[in-house]
Amino acid sequence: MTSMDHGFGAANLIRNKAIGNRRTNPLPSLLAQLLVRAGQPAIVERAVSRPWASALFEGQRHNVRLRLSGDDFPERGTAFMTGLADVEWVLPGHFVADISVDDGDADMESVWLELSALTIEDW
Asked: pTM here?
């Protein structure tokens, strides 16, 4: 008797292959969109992600440190934060469930913002 006779054939292998094949990481797309929103010059000083899950959803928690500089950094910083939670982010296979500015500070040349975001896999 072969494995095909026991119902463990190719269909099972295909199904099992999909289990480990997760969607792409949403962080690069999120960072690119954050930089566009921030305007130039701006840099991502740090970006880290960790897995996140609830009883019904899977995703990632992201922490990002963003620095805005240039002559108009105070105005750009304010504009960046205004309406941040209402932005429609485009993340294939994911959506932003929550995003916020958790901390920030400014000096004479720049402002830095500490952001946290929760992305969820969009099934």
From this structure: 0.79
